[in-house]
Amino acid sequence: MAGRGYGGRGGAGFARPENALKRAEELENVGQKGNALQVLHDIITSKKHRTWSKTYETIMFKHIDLVVDMKKRNYGKEALMQYRNMCQAVNIASLEEVIKYYLKKASDKAEEAQSKAADRTDRELVTPWFRFLWEAYRSVLEILRTNPKLEPVYAMTANKAFHFCLQFKRTAEFRRLCDILRQHLTNSTNRYREAPTAESLQLHMDTRFEQLKSLILLQKKSPKQQSMATYYARLTQIFAVSENHLYNAYAWLKLFNFSRSFNKNMTPADFQAMSSSVLLAMLSILPYDVKQGQALDEMAVDQEKERILRMANILGYQVDANKDYRTVLSRAALLSSVGAVNVLALVPPEIRQIHELLTSEFAPLELCRRMAPLLAKLGETTHSMSASSPVKEVALGQYVNQLKQVFSSLKISTLESLVPFMPLSEVEAVVVDAVKCEYLQMRIDHRQGTLHFGSQQLESEQVCSHLQLLSQRLSKAVAMERAGAVSAAQAAKKAEIVALALENTEALHSLAHARKLMIEKRKEDAENALLEAERESQRLREQQEQDAARLAERRAKEDALRREKDRIEAELQEQEKQELMAMMEARMKSGKVGSKLAAVMKGAEGKELDRDTILREAQAERLKEQQELERKMTKVARQLDHLERARREEEAPVLARLAAEREAEERGLYEESVRQEAVRHRAGWEQDMADRGRILKTLDDKAVFEAQVIARRREEFEEYRRQQLAKQAQRRAQRRAEITSQRIERFLEQCRKEVAVRVADIEAEEAARLKEEKKKQEEERLRKLQEIAEQQRKREAEIEAKTREQNEALRAAPAAGN
């Protein structure tokens, strides 16, 4: 019965697929799932069954059950590919149902195994089910990627694969899935020349969003605390080297907050040192921006905004991109947060006094004098030494700003005496930078040795600027007061207008989109129908030509075979005839032919010989000769039997006498050999006994000699062993010294390279800075020269105008006198 089911021919041997399904169920009931799967697999992959019917869908469901139970993923992939070819032109929905059923069964098995996994051994048993489910998703995506009609099923499968990776934390499979989808997209773009439809783009976009969501959820974990602390510590070092005090202060603040929250091993001294670094970093920020005095175009402003937002992200601050980018990371925001983080309570008293002097004290004549001892004490500590120079610049800027509010002019010598912690050249450089950045309005008169505070604007311009500033601040105040006070009627009217516009826009867009889709569908249907008709006609022509060619070829082959067969038969008959005639002639010449056969041959001369008659007569002649020969052999055999019996009777007594004589001779030879062997053995034994007595006398000497040799060999071995150990220790020490020397050499070489690179970078930066400063000074000098020339021209024009008026007045005076 098993032979009828599939034995040797597989399921393709069934005439009807229902019989194969029934046979598979019978095999499954008796426990032969492998044979049942083979039956269904053969009926699906058979070339005879190419027309889809509902029975094949049932067979596929049963096939999938067996594939999932036995984890035969290759069988499942091959069957799905054959089923796709079978039903994609008839019932594509059936393929969709089969694929959904396949994925559901595999997913249920994986989830069931996951729920039963209690210990490590069970989890190792779950891994094959995860691998099977992953291979199922891969196979389905590979099968669906080339059919545009199955794009929704493809998107559904991709989303399920993302959910599988997310649910079971399969990061490696997620990476491979992304590569597969990207490769499929590239191949489909190269394969189809026409533009994709809106539905395809929407499905692709949804799949990409699901991929992004899964990626975010897979990677949603906070970094280690130690890593974050190291990260912010490195940021403080980087910003300190780059002399970006604003970002350095923000990095110190982040490090302080993070250490205070997570590092429970910090001592009060550590907290004091870190809080001092935070406050000094804040106080080191200049109260003006070095780029404020530069004219920036719109593109430069956007780039600056993007840079600041990116730096805020690096520092771990979530900011609103719609706010003014200059207030995202600012000195004012940092100083306002000092009280919130309670830094002042942890810092030493001298740093707290520096903070009070720079933020709240107004002492134009005593600020620098009171700052000098605090800064000197600040430079003594190791962790505050690097911050003393920026704090001096900030203190000088604050001091000059306070002097500007009290004095209109001041001698340079007086300013030098009021700033004891900084030489005059550095003071001048800091003041010039502040003026360039529009933080201070003053000018230096080196001829008179004085400083003049205030801008060079006219009084009317000052009044105008004050009025503009007042107007801007009043506008801001009114806007802040009336924020959110928009009338409900205006809001409702605006919402109604917007909704109407959106509704009309959506309707027009839908109509245009529907009309476009309808036109494209009609064109596509017409093109497909025309293409299908051409394909069908071409297929019929090719089929007819192939049938005609096969028929002509078959007929030609049959004619050739028939002619060849007739030719071979004729040749065989002629050859047999010639051989028979030759044989008969030879027998007739030798006289071995009987009288009857000779009469037949003579009677057949000149006629066509009858082959059967000649063979029959030759057979009879041969049989007669054989019988005569047997009769003669029987007579001869009888005569030989009598002769043999007589010979044996005569030789029997002679053989007995010869045997007795041979036995007596051999017995005598044996006894003589035994006697000679005994004599030879006795002589050998006596010689061995004599040698034994002689050797026994030397046993004592042999033992002494053996002991001496062993002792000498042991001493030689110990000496050789000590020498080898010493050589090994010497080589090991030499190798260790060489390795240490090489490491030191490599480290020194690396340090030299780093120092050379750093020196080159510093020299390049310094050269660029000097070049830029020189360029700016030259531009400033040219601008001042132009202003002076312009003022000179205006003054000359005024003088000329006054001279012209006086001349006209003088001319008019004589005329009036006349």
Automatic annotation (TrEMBL):
Listed A to Z, the keywords are: Coiled coil, Cytoplasm, Initiation factor, Protein biosynthesis, RNA-binding
**Looking at the keywords, is Iron-sulfur present?**
no
UniProt region (Disordered), positions on chain: 534-562, 793-818
> Which GO terms of type biological process are on file?
formation of cytoplasmic translation initiation complex; translation reinitiation
Give the Gene Ontology MF terms in alphabetical order. mRNA binding; translation initiation factor activity
The UniProt entry, under InterPro entries, shows: EIF3A, eIF3a_PCI_TPR-like, PCI_dom
Gene3D superfamilies (alphabetical): 1.25.40.860
Task: Indicate whether Acetylation appears among the record's keywords.
Answer: no
GO cellular-component term (any): eukaryotic translation initiation factor 3 complex, eIF3m
Biased segments, Basic and acidic residues type: 793-808
What stretch or stretches form a coiled coil here?
615-649
Ranges of residues in domain PCI: 271-458
What is the recorded name of this protein? Eukaryotic translation initiation factor 3 subunit 10
Q: Which organism is it from?
A: Haematococcus lacustris (Green alga)
